[in-house]
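User: Last request for today: this protein with S-adenosylmethionine, please.
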Amino acid sequence: MGDETRAHYDHLAPVYDQNWAYSPDFLEWMSGCILARLRVKYGDRVVDVGCGTGLYARRLAEHTGSVVCVDPSARMLERVPDDPRLVVVRASAEDLASGSTVLPRGQFEAILVKEAIHHVADRGTVIGGLAKLLAPGGRLLIVMLPTSIEYPLFQAAHDRFRELQPSPEVVAAVMGDAGLAVDLSYDDFPLVFPTERYVAMVRDRYLSLLSMFDDEELAAGVGEIRRRYPGEWVEFRDRFAFVLGVAS
Ligand SMILES: C[S@@+](CC[C@H](N)C(=O)[O-])C[C@H]1O[C@@H](n2cnc3c(N)ncnc32)[C@H](O)[C@@H]1O
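Assistant: Here's the final one, the structure of the complex with S-adenosylmethionine:
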């Protein structure tokens, strides 16, 4: 992981869960979307790559009994609950794919990569490497934002996001090239925040995208958000792509 990404998540780690704890319904909904696609059962061997603070690994572990939680950010991993069902490994997706951090090949029924694939530069190699970890019939689920989002951000942030975000269709094609049977689906969830709460999240740079703006640019962006959304609440649909690949 690059220095900028590491610095971003080191800074974000203490407030990461707080931002999402505000919306337990969202966590439930997203967990349901993941579970419906991964279709795990008790005893399945599962890896959460780019697990962050383990927000979703915790929920997966309730269904499988254990989850290997992999993330390159020590600060994020420090926030994974101290629970024997969550086995923490400090590594990147690239480390797993290259074998420099060794997980057994052909052994995992499920691998989750949620909102981390945009941090991976060589997606072909990494997705190919992760596919090799799957047991026959195993599932790789990449959860990611689409290339355009409805978040109440400032224009420059939307523009930058569109430039940088990989396309779920391209990720699906890469998964197909890795020999997986691919299904791409979308789901969305209506989010409502007090405008002040959302502005505080933007100030915390709750999206890694926002770490690309310096303090002055961010302050100008917050001003623009306030002008565009003068009401007490902001409402938007949080839409996600779910790229599922199944090993034969
Ligand atoms: C937006 S957070 C998502 C965390 C968690 N999956 C969730 O949904 O709450 C992105 C995570 O990806 C991790 N990350 C960054 N670069 C990575 C890489 N090359 N391989 C694996 N994880 C990476 C970050 O450290 C961070 O914890």
